[in-house]
């Protein structure tokens, strides 16, 4: 498969820049990166002038994909611009199709949403089911039934606060800003929060 040219303008000290480098390498996307903080003098000035053309703020990370520029840590936008899909993209589309008709929407912060979805996939690999990524699962499905996403606490949380405990699922009013984000308290009884696993 052919991909557009990908250039990442980055800093060696930037966590988000390094995360994008890791993602591109993991997905085996041909790319180049330029670490601005390793350049000096005329080379650095030339880079800044080049960057200013596509991003007047000259902020990092800036990713140039073909003729499109993505500014900031926007992994989903970068993948879309490159033209690749992963398992988490498929999960996103499936859950969106199932839950939006019920009035539950993904958080408008795409990066947070995709981080949480990756957490669900990690738990599915670990336990065989998508336990809530914000809670400690036991590894015993029967003990964790209440926190298999969507957890049984989602409905009352969204009804009262506009979002679930993780803020993965929110109401339309929460996403539009008509409801101010608030910290959602843990509804799960402490006696149900288990730290063991099925192998213990």
- Give the structural class: alpha+beta
Amount of helix: 40-55%
How many DSSP-defined strands? Answer: 6
Multimeric status of the protein? single chain
Global Rg: 20 Å
Proportion of beta-strand residues: 5-15%
Shape: elongated
Could you give the distance between the termini?
46 Å
Number of helices: 8
What is the string of SSEs from the N terminus onward? EHEHEEHHEHHHEH
Overall mean pLDDT: 93
For the biggest sheet, the summary is:
4 strands, mixed
Taking pLDDT < 50 over at least 5 consecutive residues as the criterion, the unreliable ranges are 195-200
Strand order of the largest sheet: 2-1-3-4
Could you explain how this protein is built, in words?
The structure is a single chain. With 200 residues, the protein is an alpha+beta fold. It has 8 helices and 6 strands. The strands form 2 sheets. It has a 4-stranded mixed sheet, with helices on one face. Helix 4 crosses helix 5. The longest helix is centred in the middle third of the chain and has 18 residues, at 110-127. The termini are far apart.
